[in-house]
Amino acid sequence: MFLQSEHIYLRALEPDDLEFLYSLENNPDIWQVSNTTTPYAKHVLQQYLEQAAADIFSVKQLRLLIHTHQHQAVGAIDLFDFEPLHQRAGLGIVIAPTYRQQHYATEALQLLLKYCREHLLLHQVFCSVSSKNVSSLRLFEKAEFSVVGTRQQWIRTAAGWQDIVEFQKILSE
């Protein structure tokens, strides 16, 4: 397995991942991050899984599951808005609540960055993080992403408006 580190490995989605995806995507705590406001039906997720094997060059996105070496799914990491011409993609990561603060996100991010650099030959990746999401802000700062701007009052939540911090990482540096 080439996308592995000391504690985790990344792998493509499989049909057996339906229950994990269902629990992850239907967790209201992550809806704000994923820009979702309604639950996903299992049927919709099943259709997504059937399409998940498509090539990133044709569907412009890639989702990988984050697994421990004990084969426990702990989260997902995504590339989206893939632009081969401009050699860039957006990046998103979510760790299931019970597995947070265990450095899985850090290891998954490093693995995905290596994949982007060495296999997709990307020049840069970017991401958007709520200014209230201290763990994610720390994750991308630690990975040496640069803050390139802040979108003021960009996300409306039950608690009020939140700013979004925009990050970018040039991979050739």
Automatic annotation (TrEMBL):
- For the N-acetyltransferase domain, which residue ranges apply? 8-173
Give the domain of life.
Answer: Bacteria
Q: Which Pfam families match?
A: Acetyltransf_3 (PF13302)
Kindly give the InterPro entries that the UniProt entry links to this protein. Acyl_CoA_acyltransferase, GNAT_dom
Q: Does the keyword Transferase apply?
A: yes
UniProt-listed Gene3D superfamilies? 3.40.630.30
The name this protein goes by in its record: GNAT family N-acetyltransferase
The UniProt keyword set, sorted, is: Transferase
Alphabetized GO MF terms: acyltransferase activity, transferring groups other than amino-acyl groups
Task: Please tell me the species this chain comes from.
Answer: Adhaeribacter radiodurans
